[in-house]
Design goal:
This protein is of the alpha/beta class. The chain has twelve helices and nine strands. Helix 4 links the parallel strand 3 and strand 4 (about 120). The structure holds phosphoric acid mono(formamide)ester and norvaline. The site of norvaline has 10 residues, from helix 6.
């Protein structure tokens, strides 16, 4: 059974297989070439948090592949009233061909996979956002031609995005630099793994991290579930913004990336956002193509 729970579970070869398939599916969609690789299959999409991109791209994606998507809000499922995930997993495995889940704890996603017997795809947890990073890798490769040897810089909160970018970037041959304030570093185990590869740095200096970068990435300072800390976080992250000074430190022609939604004037200036809107919205579009590839590789029978 192939799941997509976090990027560290997939080998470099599996990641590139998905990226190549994503490029092929993107080409076929643009040229009206049908690719109903999951004909008749049903994907359940469990959401315990809000979503625009993930929800719509999975639903459109499974439709393109000849299947059906079922939107399942955890507010309406019995899981929201305390039905154990191990029972939910066994019940849903009898009806569905795969599940995409967006929730808080990574353990809930891992438990769904452990107790169910259908493929599980992680649509974001507090720990990681692997679907987003597959789209990001596809986008960097489109714009820069190759991933090997490129430098990816992440500025801001050492959150789910940072964790997945570190793993995905390093596994595909990039060097990854992170700039974040003390107390907001990425996951310790991920940083230890990354440091051991020799292709990773984490610093408090935004300009040091951005120096020579080919892609500069940021995300919100307060993630879903941290709304109550937003004011405190706005203070903690002053200076951790993609602005003209950061772009002057990066390589000429460096891309700017954001998983969205963005807060202009906080993690990125409105001017830099608009100047790089083509890259940022290509990245958003690629959620669709990358996730179709992930669904095919996990669910094709
Ligand atoms: N980037 C992303 O996952 O967006 P949504 O929260 O809108 O799904
Ligand atoms: N770090 C953000 C990503 C949203 C796509 C969050 O978890 O809210």
């Amino acid at each position: 059974m192939k799941h997509f729970l976090k990027l560290s579970d997939w080998s470099t070869e599996e990641i590139f297989e998905a990226l190549d398939l994503a490029d092929k599916l993107k080409y076929e969609r643009k040229h009206g070439i049908p690719h109903k690789l999951l004909e008749g299959q049903t994907l359940g999409m469990i959401f315990s948090k809000s979503s625009t991109r993930t929800r719509v791209s999975f639903e459109v994606g499974i439709h393109d592949l000849g299947g059906t998507g079922l939107f399942l809000s955890s507010r309406d499922l019995q899981i929201g009233r305390g039905e154990p995930v191990e029972d939910t997993a066994r019940v849903l495995s009898r009806y569905l061909d795969g599940i995409m889940i967006r929730t808080f704890a990574q353990k809930e996603v891992e438990d769904l996979a452990a107790y169910g017997n259908i493929p599980i795809i992680n649509g974001l947890t507090d720990y990681c956002h692997p679907c987003q990073v597959m789209a990001d890798l596809q986008t960097i490769r489109e714009h820069k031609g190759d991933l090997a040897g490129k430098k990816l810089c992440f500025i801001g909160d050492g959150n789910n995005m940072a964790n997945s970018l570190i793993v995905g970037g390093i596994k595909t041959g990039m060097t990854v630099s992170v700039a974040c304030p003390k107390g907001h570093q990425p996951d310790t185990a991920i940083m230890e793994w990354a440091a051991a590869t020799g292709n990773f740095t984490c610093t408090e200096s935004v300009l040091e991290a951005a120096a020579g970068a080919d892609a500069v990435y940021t995300d919100v300072w307060a993630s879903m579930g941290q709304e109550g800390e937003a004011a405190e976080r706005r203070n903690a992250f002053v200076g951790y913004q993609i602005n003209d000074a950061v772009m002057a430190a990066a390589n000429p022609g460096a891309m700017v990336m954001h998983c969205l939604p963005a807060h202009r004037g906080e993690e990125i200036t409105a001017e830099i956002f608009e100047a790089h809107a083509d890259e940022i919205f290509d990245e958003a579009e690629n959620r669709l193509h990358a996730q179709k590839a992930i669904m095919v590789l996990c669910m094709q029978k």
